[in-house]
Amino acid sequence: MSRNRIIFIVIIISLVTITIYSLQDSQGGEQYVQEIKTFREEKDLSMTRDDFPFAGRADEFTGLKYFEPDPAFRISASLSPIKDKNVVVLATNDGLESKYLEYAYADFSISGVKCRLLILEIMEQGPNRGTLFLAFADNTSANETYGAGRYLDLRKVPGSSSILLDFNKAYNPYCAYSDKFSCPFPPRENILHVAIRAGEKNYK
């Protein structure tokens, strides 16, 4: 087989491989966007149930507002566990306090800006004890998004050196809709100096 023919075959194989991976990435992106849309539809349905902000007020609920799903805001952050953990006291919207235990720092970059978020662990007795809690604010807060910050649910994976931060699932605390709820404000170190245009927007 001639050298030119070998080179031609290698080029064809490379192009086919690139095309296959491009199609897989495209399909994966579309699937992810659909997952986020389904997640949001299910949340809308839950907002009028018992113990939720619009319970008994279904006629007032007009649906939550969101940024368009963007895979760029689904970030794998490096995780730095905190060895000597301290108790963190966060103020709440109703003048009370809520206590948490330091868990780890999540480090990542977005839009060229290096960010670090403090992840906390719930201390109070009950079914949520030991689960993770992340509250943050960013440059969209009090403009495009709720002024007191937003929350992000995280999954604890013991021994992991990374953690998934999917800001497309960032949501408003329930006090954004009703004064009946007590919601902690983000710790000072979780005020990001970058715009996180992902997840839930202001309701009104």
Topology of this protein?
Blueprint: H1 3-46, E1 74-81, E2 87-91, E3 97-110, E4 113-122, E5 132-136, E6 150-152, E7 162-166
Antiparallel strand pairs: 1-3, 1-7, 2-3, 3-4, 4-5, 5-6
Please provide the ordered H/E string of secondary-structure elements.
Answer: HEEEEEEE
Mean pLDDT score: 88
Structural category is alpha+beta
The whole-angstrom Rg is 21 Å
> Count of DSSP helices?
1
Structure, described:
This protein is an alpha+beta fold. Helices cover 22% and strands 25% of the residues. Strands 1, 2, 3, 4, 5, 6 and 7 form a seven-stranded antiparallel beta sheet that branches. The radius of gyration is 21 Å and the shape is globular.
Please tag this protein with its features.
2 domains, 204 residues, 1 helix, seven-stranded antiparallel sheet, alpha+beta, 25% strand
Q: Concise description?
A:
The protein has 204 residues and is of the alpha+beta class. The chain has one helix and seven strands.
